[in-house]
Write a structure and sequence with these properties.
The complex is a heterodimer.
Chain A: E1 14-25, E2 28-40, E3 45-49, H1 56-63, E4 72-81, E5 84-85, H2 91-97, E6 102-105, H3 109-112, H4 119-131, H5 135-148, H6 154-157, H7 167-179, E7 185-189, H8 197-214, E8 217-222, H9 225-231, E9 234-239, E10 242-248, H10 249-254, H11 259-266, H12 306-310, E11 316-317, E12 327-328, H13 333-336
Parallel strand pairs in A: 3-8, 3-9, 6-7, 7-8
Antiparallel strand pairs in A: 1-2, 1-4, 4-5, 9-10, 10-12, 11-12
Chain B: E1 2-3, E2 36-51, E3 56-72, E4 76-80, H1 87-94, E5 102-110, E6 112-115, H2 121-128, E7 131-134, H3 148-158, H4 165-177, H5 194-206, E8 212-216, H6 224-241, E9 244-249, H7 252-258, E10 261-266, E11 269-275, H8 276-281, H9 286-294, E12 343-347, E13 350-353, H10 357-361
Parallel strand pairs in B: 4-9, 4-10, 7-8, 8-9
Antiparallel strand pairs in B: 1-6, 2-3, 2-5, 5-6, 10-11, 11-13, 12-13
Helix pairs in contact in B: 3-4, 3-5, 4-5, 5-6
The chains are: A alpha/beta, B alpha/beta.
């Protein structure tokens, strides 16, 4: 991704530069993340969208070096967090980063919480580890965090176990735990996918509130374009291990330029007129060990030509001069504009 | 056993096996349709809770608590609501995949109506040909040890509708209808993607030429682009074979697109039912209003006013007294805490169970 350096631009909180994460499988090398670059500034939300298997979650896990090795391995690229390359960090250094500067919340709060410890113990553990405070103080902090995320009667809830809480409550506990050490970056991997819409609205509202308060950067990974539209400042669209398009949210939704992004929007029932057929993207996402040559979307693309199979399109800024960055990886932008 | 009229607006009095513990003093929301395929009245499914050494019966999970609806011919009725509202249990107990504990369901597939809940196992099996289901999870709903041909053809064999080569021919035809290559007939489910597996499930449901299909979160597990393919397929099949769907889903945008009419469930009961257009233009129940407002829209230029509900859905073991929704309702009044609201008709096709409907739904349409 080419940086447009304007003098007023803040330095990035997180910058991924050509990140490659490969897995060794029985079927061969699976290039799950293959040259992903994106940037997130403090106080902003970057939405990462894409369908199952596009590599969005693996990218997020590798920021915290949580990809199991073997079979997974970061084989190239840099992960710059406040200018420091996390890829070069030792395990001991990473442990100081995880849960402290960078926190993560997962899709399924039941499996992410330990069922045999009270929620208070789990929040306090993070605080004691990173802040070196005593038991009583950590417990106070846990109660304070539970209050902050809107859990009723926190003094009582702090001694309860995860199974005693509803799904929405558990996700609030996850957020309380993640926020307990005042992280600078929150990675939220499908944070509301397992929740009902009314609870989803509560949780997203909470994250936005915490962000406004603390200047937190949020990496919001989701397949829900509605969630992205309402919560992100910038969006990166991923397909088959690559970012295919990146733009400010309003720009992306108003003028999607990559044929995949265009197809994705058209298949949304929200945007279809009543009675009109939904448009579809033919075929399925290719398997990660057998991505097509050249442009990986070409096998499903309505406007692909021979050139698309031969040469992989680079991600280039297609916005006019003076306009905010809008990068697209496609050889056929003019034709795509007519789709 | 045979009935000649649908249960239009019927109150489940004698039909329920055990009288409701909450002594339902008001009729349920129920909009009747002319010439229905299916007419359900007071459908109830309680799961008993046993505790202690003697397995004492200490209460019930009131999963489906007196639900009434009609499904018209060639119509799609959607049941929407959040987890635990009873929508899936309603669909399954309607087909008697789990036995309902109360209510009636008249099926008008072939002239005279048949009471589904009174049928013997043998009679039910015959009627089941007409009534099929597609499940949410295309991974666990297909037997991993059976080939696709066997999965799709099983119903034909069981019901003795075809044998030998005739089965193969029909399987090939069904696979083509749902967009699978017949050459893949001898493969196993794990060799297919999620969207393709869902197509196998659809082919299986279609094999017996049903008239009615319960689509239980049939597209929820699929990615957006694949979801659109399957939704289009379901619509095409409806047009081609004159199917009626009971579409059970939590994804409001899909429901809006696919349904003719919608019933909104909360804690085991239908709180509002209307045509799709009416429901989205003038949602009358505060829960429906909150539910619709909570759906994120893929349009960043639109910043809508959101009704944020407080708290979680209460337990169906001990539903709140009065209106079940009053604990989270932003406009509840004293009466809501004690009295379950009777349905108010907003139009001939639109009813809501709320004491405050008149104040909240705005003026009734001229046609009402």
């Amino acid at each position: 991704m080419q940086a447009k350096s304007t003098p007023s631009e803040q330095p990035a909180l997180l910058e991924l530069d050509g990140l490659q994460v490969h897995f060794q499988t029985e079927d061969g090398t699976s290039r799950a993340v293959d040259g992903v670059s994106y940037r997130l500034r403090a106080g902003e939300t970057l939405g990462i969208v894409g369908e199952s298997g596009c590599g969005k979650s693996v990218t997020a896990l590798s920021i915290l070096q949580l990809v199991p090795d073997p079979p997974g391995r970061i084989v190239g690229g840099r992960i710059l967090f406040e200018g420091q390359d996390l890829v070069r960090f030792s395990e001991a250094q990473m442990r100081k980063v995880r849960g402290n500067d960078i926190a993560m919340i997962f899709q399924e709060p039941m499996t992410a919480l330990n069922p045999v410890f009270t929620v208070g113990d789990q929040i306090a553990e993070t605080v004691r580890l990173h802040r070196g405070v005593g038991k009583a103080e950590a417990r106070q902090r846990a109660i304070e965090m539970l209050t902050k995320v809107g859990i009723p009667s926190p003094e009582q809830r702090v001694d309860e176990y995860p199974h005693q809480l509803s799904g929405g409550m558990r996700q609030r506990v996850m957020i309380a735990m993640a926020m307990s050490c005042d992280p600078k970056l929150l990675i939220a991997d499908e944070p509301t996918t397992a929740l009902d819409v009314t609870i989803q609205a509560q949780v997203l509202d909470l994250i936005r509130g915490l962000q406004a308060e603390s200047g937190l950067g949020v990496l919001l990974i989701t397949h829900d374009l509605g969630v992205v539209a309402e919560n992100a400042n910038h969006v990166a669209v991923m397909y088959a291990g690559k970012v295919v398009e990146y733009a400010p949210v309003a720009e992306l939704f108003a003028r999607p330029r990559h044929p995949y992004t265009i197809g994705l929007f058209r298949s949304l029932p929200d945007l279809a007129a009543p009675g009109e057929r939904l448009q579809t993207i033919p075929g399925i996402v290719p398997a990660a060990h057998a991505f097509p040559s050249g442009c990986r979307f070409r096998t499903r693309c309505p406007i692909a030509v021979d050139h698309c199979a031969a040469v992989e399109p680079p991600l280039v800024d297609s916005a006019g001069p003076g306009l905010p960055e809008h990068t697209v990886a496609c050889h056929r932008l003019e034709e795509a504009a007519k789709l | 056993m045979n009935v000649s009229t649908p249960h239009a607006g019927a109150v489940p009095t004698g039909a329920a096996a055990a009288p409701s513990a909450l002594a339902r003093e008001v009729p349920p929301v129920h909009v009747a349709v002319p010439d229905p395929l299916l007419s359900v009245a007071g459908l109830e499914k309680l799961f008993p809770i046993h505790r202690g050494v003697f397995s004492r019966h200490v209460g019930d999970v009131r999963a489906v608590d007196g639900v009434s609806f009609d499904v018209g011919k060639r119509e799609t009725l959607s049941l929407v609501g959040e987890s635990g509202c009873g929508k899936t249990t309603a669909g399954r107990s309607l087909l008697r995949l789990i036995e309902p504990t109360g209510g009636r369901a008249a099926y008008f597939g072939s002239g005279a109506g048949v009471e589904l809940f009174d049928l013997s196992r043998g009679d039910l099996r015959r009627v089941r040909r007409d009534l099929q289901i597609i499940f949410q999870d295309p991974f666990s709903s297909l037997n991993p040890r059976m080939t696709v041909a066997n999965i799709i053809g099983e119903g034909l064999r069981v019901h003795g509708l075809a044998r030998g080569e005739a089965v193969d021919e029909q399987v090939a035809e069904l696979m083509q209808i749902v967009g699978l290559r017949p050459e893949a007939r001898n493969r196993f489910p794990h060799e297919f993607s999620g969207g393709q597996r869902q197509r196998i499930g659809i082919a299986r449901a279609l094999a017996l030429k049903p008239k009615f299909i319960v689509c239980d979160e049939a597209v929820s597990a699929l990615d957006v682009s694949i979801q659109a393919q399957v939704v289009n397929l379901l619509k095409d099949l409806q047009g081609e074979f004159g199917l009626s769907y009971l579409f059970i889903a939590h994804d409001i945008s899909i429901v809006k697109y696919i349904s003719d009419r919608i019933a909104v469930m909360y804690l085991g009961r239908i709180v509002e039912t209307a045509t799709t257009k009416e429901l989205f233009e003038r949602p009358a129940h505060p829960y429906t209003q909150a539910l619709l407002s909570a759906v994120p829209h893929p349009d960043p230029t639109q910043r809508r006013q959101r009704i944020l509900l407080q708290g979680d859905v209460p337990s169906p073991i001990n539903p709140p007294a009065g209106c079940h929704f009053h604990t989270r309702c932003p406009v509840a009044i004293a009466r809501c805490r004690t009295e379950y609201p009777a349905p108010t008709a907003i139009s001939p096709t639109h009813q809501a169970a709320c004491h405050l409907v008149e104040q909240h739904a705005g003026p009734a349409p001229a046609a009402g």
